[in-house]
Design goal:
Blueprint: H1 2-19, H2 26-33, H3 37-43, H4 47-72, H5 76-86, H6 88-93, H7 98-104, H8 111-138, H9 147-168, H10 171-183
Helix pairs in contact: 1-2, 1-4, 2-3, 4-5, 4-8, 5-8, 5-10, 7-8, 8-9, 9-10
Length: 186
């Protein structure tokens, strides 16, 4: 049963990241996974339940990645670059960021999903603020950087660059964006 649930989460995430929340159905997911639609309802009674599980799994993966970045060293700009490279996995697979894709549909999503997506981004903003503050303190981020403003700029820049590179198919452009972003912090 856990294998089916895990496969549903994996395949639903791919569908949402490619097509959006409104762009996929349980019927489509059932076909991809090779089960009956009723079996999906056994694991996730509603599409909202499934979306919340997707965000929770995505958030947990990012938590691991963010902790690993912190463990690699205390260079603030290097941490920002490592954070930015997490987005490359999406570009390589032609996928958008799950929470950004959901955020695009924010006005049509149930409140619980909007709240989960806002919490995801709020956590990332707080993490980036800490990284930037620590970097200013240890001299790896230039003085004068305003951590709250730059944290939002980092996420906005990376989400926008991810969208553009998915559209343009130019991974090198994303690398140039990462360089410009980290150079602006030194």
């Amino acid at each position: 049963m856990n294998d089916t649930r895990a496969e549903l989460i994996l395949q639903a995430e791919l569908l949402v990241r490619r097509q959006g929340y409104s762009g996929f159905s349980y019927a489509q997911l059932a076909e991809v996974v090779g089960i009956r639609k009723a079996s999906i309802h056994h694991h996730f009674p509603t599409k909202t339940d499934l979306a919340l599980a997707l965000v929770a799994a995505y958030d947990a993966r990012y938590d691991e990645a963010l902790n690993a970045i912190l463990a690699e060293g205390d260079d603030g700009a290097a941490r920002i670059k490592a954070y930015a490279t997490l987005y490359l996995k999406g570009i390589e697979k032609g996928l958008g960021c799950l929470c950004a894709v959901l955020a695009v549909e924010m006005d049509t999503l149930p409140l619980q999903i909007r709240t989960a997506v806002a919490c995801f981004f709020g956590k990332h903003i707080a993490w980036l603020e800490t990284v930037l503050t620590d970097g200013i303190t240890n001299g790896t981020i230039r003085a004068g950087v305003d951590p709250p403003s730059f944290a939002r700029m980092v996420i906005s820049t990376l989400e926008g660059a991810l969208m553009m590179e998915r559209l343009l198919g130019d991974e090198e452009g994303f690398h140039r964006t990462i360089s410009a972003l980290t150079d602006s912090l030194r």
